[in-house]
Specification:
ligase, 33% helix, D-amino Acid Aminotransferase, Chain A, domain 1, Dala_Dala_lig_C
Length: 311
């Protein structure tokens, strides 16, 4: 780009991300925007924001979109500053976070990195130990603490931007299909030696060579709970101003209400692996058609470029 070889480019389609930093998913889009190159997917600001799950939840709360009560343990925090109890008491949800179980994970990771069988904690001792483990494994990372949501989990695949965005399909993450033996095995990363109760997907279940696939594709017309999930996902997608294609993960709490877990505006698109791509196929959209729809969505955001392509 510095040699101005990009002058002939109409639209950049990049699924690349940087290697380092909490803004790594925004680095390539940031360069494209600096050189005024139209590109597919959300802008750099949105990509950086959505990777930071703590800040994402702050925005969701501002819009009144339900997300589990949470607190962020800053990367700089040590017990020399204050106790963990004192830190939590200063947060908006400190009182709610005094009830267990809770769930802990790095605030700025994806693909279940940093999620181990011990991520669900049932008492304060486990919470302190879990945070210490994550600080050791992810130095310089903030840690997200949130109320554990014990209900069903869904992934909603979305295409489009703003009012034009729509749901492609919804996938239910069916934990009953997971093998307890595989949950306890440490394949991709060796997490702490706790056992998972099968109520969530840790890094080994998701990324190991023997990874399970507990998804079940759903039809929202048959299930009011799924309709509620899809409506909530679109609210979150639009609130964060996400573009073109992505996923929103949602889980029900003990109160039988759906809550937004996280938003992924840079989703995997591998036809043989990625949930979004396989959901599209289940809904009768081939991988080629899916990519075409993503490009069409991007062109809607660049009217001059769209007019050029239409001719």
């Amino acid at each position: 780009m510095a040699r101005e070889e990009h002058k002939e480019w109409d639209l950049a389609f990049s699924i690349s991300e940087g290697m380092h930093g909490v803004g790594r998913e925004a680095q390539i889009p940031g360069l494209l925007e600096a050189y005024q190159i139209p590109h597919v997917f959300s802008d750099a600001a949105t990509l950086a924001l959505c990777l930071d799950k703590g800040k994402t939840k702050m925005i969701l709360e501002q819009f009144g979109i339900p997300t589990a009560p949470f607190a962020v343990v800053p990367a700089s925090w040590t017990k020399a500053d204050c106790t963990l109890t004192q830190l939590l008491e200063k947060t908006m949800h400190g009182q709610k976070l005094s009830s267990f179980p809770l769930f802990i994970k790095p605030a700025c990771e994806g693909s279940s990195k940093g999620i181990y069988p011990s991520s669900k904690v049932d008492n304060f001792t486990e919470l302190e130990r879990g945070i210490q483990v994550l600080q050791t494994r992810f130095p310089g990372a903030s840690i997200l603490i949130e109320t554990f949501l014990s209900g069903q989990e869904y992934t909603v695949s979305i295409i489009g931007t703003g009012k034009r965005s729509r749901v492609i399909g919804t996938t239910h993450i069916d934990w009953e299909g997971l093998s307890r033996q595989k949950q306890q095995a440490s394949v991709a990363e060796k997490g702490p030696a706790n056992t998972s109760d099968g109520s969530f997907w840790d890094v080994n279940n998701k990324n190991g060579p023997d990874a399970d696939e507990p998804e079940r594709f759903l039809n929202s017309r048959d299930n009011p709970n799924v309709q509620a999930v899809e409506d909530l996902a679109l609210q979150a997608w639009r609130a964060l101003e996400c573009c073109d294609v992505g996923r929103v993960d949602i889980r029900y709490g003990a109160d039988n209400r759906p809550y937004v877990l996280e938003i992924n505006p840079l989703p995997g698109l591998r036809p043989d692996w990625s949930i979004l791509a396989r959901t599209a196929v289940h809904e009768g959209i081939s991988h080629k058609e899916l990519i075409g729809k993503v490009i069409d969505s991007a062109l809607e955001r660049y009217p001059i470029l769209k007019a050029k392509c239409d001719h």
